[in-house]
Structure prediction request, 625 residues.
Amino acid sequence: MIAIDQLSFHYPDSTFSLRVPSLTVGDGEKVALVGPSGSGKTTLLHLIAGILLPDTGHIAVGEARPDQLNDAQRRAFRIATLGLVFQDFQLLAALDVLENILLPYRINPALKLTGEVRERARQLAQETGLEQRLHHRPGRLSHGEKQRAALCRALITQPRCLLADEPTGNLDPHAKTRVLDVLFEQCARAKASLLMVTHDHGLLSRFDRAIDLGELNASGAARGHSCPQPPANINKAP
Amino acid sequence: MKHIWFLAWQSIRYNRVQSVILIIGLAVPLYLPLAVNGLVSRYEAGLLQRAVSTPLVAGGLGSRFDLVLHALYFRGNVPRLLRMADVEAIRATGYAGPIPLYVRYTAHHAPIVGTTLDYFPFRRLRLARGEQLLELGDCVLGSEVAASLKLAPGDRLITDPENVFDIAGSYPVKLRVMGVLEPSGTPDDRAVFVDIKTTWLVEGLAHGHSDITATNTDTSVVLNRNATNVTANAALVEFTEVTPQKIASFHFHGDPDQFPLSAVIPVPKDERSATLLRGRYQGPDATVQMLVARSVVEELMGLVFRIKRFFDANAVLVGVATALFLLLVVLLSVRLRRPEMETLFRLGCARGLIAKLVATELIAIAAVSLVLALVGAQATIALVSLW
Prediction:
């Protein structure tokens, strides 16, 4: 579960500020994060992932408090607890699909790259339709395939929570549906929570609920830290 | 660490063109000083080894460097020749056994070294095939000469004419190959050895021709005849090869004590004898200079090393320039790869590990460059040595 309380953040030398009075994502819940550009969606994901640290407030992911961990602990937490899917895939061009999926195991000494992990990577690739592309580099993949490879990389560590930053951006409708299917299917299989940034309101009906960060930020800013509000709940899934 | 190496290798492989350019860019500035140092060291070792095994060198007055290089390496000519009487003078001191050398002529561009049989045990030269010098006109070949000219005992080798336009000069002599020496890795491998008298034969101080004193001589070649002397004209045929049938007709003209030599290697009995012998030739009126070969070679090497210091300074400057370029390349590469590094960081990779990854790539490229430079330098040294 993700729980945020009285969060505020601002970038140095910038007028941007993010205020989130309260936000929770339950275990296994699929939540869409919407809002206008510049409302802080990506920033919020980075704060939850411990890539950025809040000015004030608390963030909890399960038992962990990333804002209270040191740098090494935050990295360990991130790699063990979270799966990250970026908007522009961010696959390493030098590695083939299989090695991109296995990348978390190569960059964190706490994770052991075993035969079982390799098998899991192959299994994930098969489930996402990438089994024929395992030894292809990202340069030879389509957008959809890249996104699926990025998704496999996020899921390989069997995270409890998946943070996805516009994974369906720049995809055609068919590819969007397929990526989302895979995302939901894998999250359901792993019983992982999903917090996904999207601009595509047509997809919101497939989520358990959606949060408009623009509204949340405005309400947080207006009400200040002393007045926590429940998260906005729009387009509640039927 | 194996994962870091794996990722570094994948990156190098993926950016193979850039990596190869970087490797070559690093290997070349590494190769040059390595090759120069290797060649100079080898040259120095070769020069010193030969010089150390040659205690003294005697020769006419003039450049000591020319004399020592001539006596040790059969290179160049000495400014002034010695006479055979000088050899006897050295012998007469009782301090050393002199080995005469006369190196002036060539056969197929290999220097013809006129000497005595003492030269061979002095240089520890042994025959691989055939026999030692027995008669006038015999020669023994250094291993490289025999190999390059494909000659074996029993074959003939003609000396090079000194000047094809000088019809009054010495004529080429056909030498009989008696033996081939074992390889020694010294200039002896590239020389043709003959008895000192044979070099005088090549020079024209000795010759052989038909007997014009006999009563049945062709009278058309005789210009003048008296009780003690017969003068023949140029139509008299001189022999160009010493054969068992003709050897008796070969004879010397002039005083053998005045016959020329280019250098002498005096082999002193001991260090004291060497010092005393040198003392004999240090007066202001001395017409022979007696040199310690090692000192002259070390002096020569001093000159070489002085020049080498410029190469070293140049190598340092090139190294600094290369390091700066490398730094620039790394900084630009880091800038270009920032998104990739940011991805690694976001995925949970420590910044230190990312730095280690970049460093590993650089180390791998530097290591390959170093290996290439070393192999190249060794190959160059080997090739130059062969040449």
Summary: The interface with chain B takes residues 46, 49, 51, 71-72, 75-76, 78-79, 84, 86, 90, 92-95, 99, 103-108, 113, 137, 153 of chain A (CB under 8 Å). Residues 173-190 of chain A form the longest helix (18 residues).
